[in-house]
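[Meeting: bench + compute handoff]

Bench side (C.D.) handed over the final construct sequence. Compute side (W.E.) agreed to return the predicted structure before the next meeting so the bench team could plan truncations. Sequence as handed over:
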Amino acid sequence: MIDNLNKSILEEYQKDASITYRTLAQKIGEAPSTVFSRIKQMKDSGVIRGIIPLVSSEAVGKPTTAWIKISLDINTDCCDFADKVAKNENVMEVHEIAGEWDILLKVKVKDNLALHDLTKQISHLPGINNMESLIAFKTVKEDPRINL
């Protein structure tokens, strides 16, 4: 599914998804109709899951990035818990992980008080054995693009 042409398209498309098909086609040396059909195929197959703007968390009042590690009781279903916590609007990422912790969340909030409130809210979910937060002092790199 990801042949060299799709890879070329994705590399350019990840840089700027607002680019026109014609401009993208010129950059990679293909016809606009080919680029259009390939992007449509990748959307239909789930390779491209959506096209969203990259919004500055600082500009929208959520400059604090934190990770919350959660260990669950042995009788708690990790998948069910992950689905529940994923519904929170401040939770950017939910990962089921191996090791000492079961769940890793990435969150964006207004400040430390908002993080406190969020962790308090999450701590009321049933099945939590332990929880720990890590706060970023400064973000040096944060890039959702995948290196192909």
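W.E. noted at the follow-up: The radius of gyration is 20 Å. C.D. will use this when planning the next construct.
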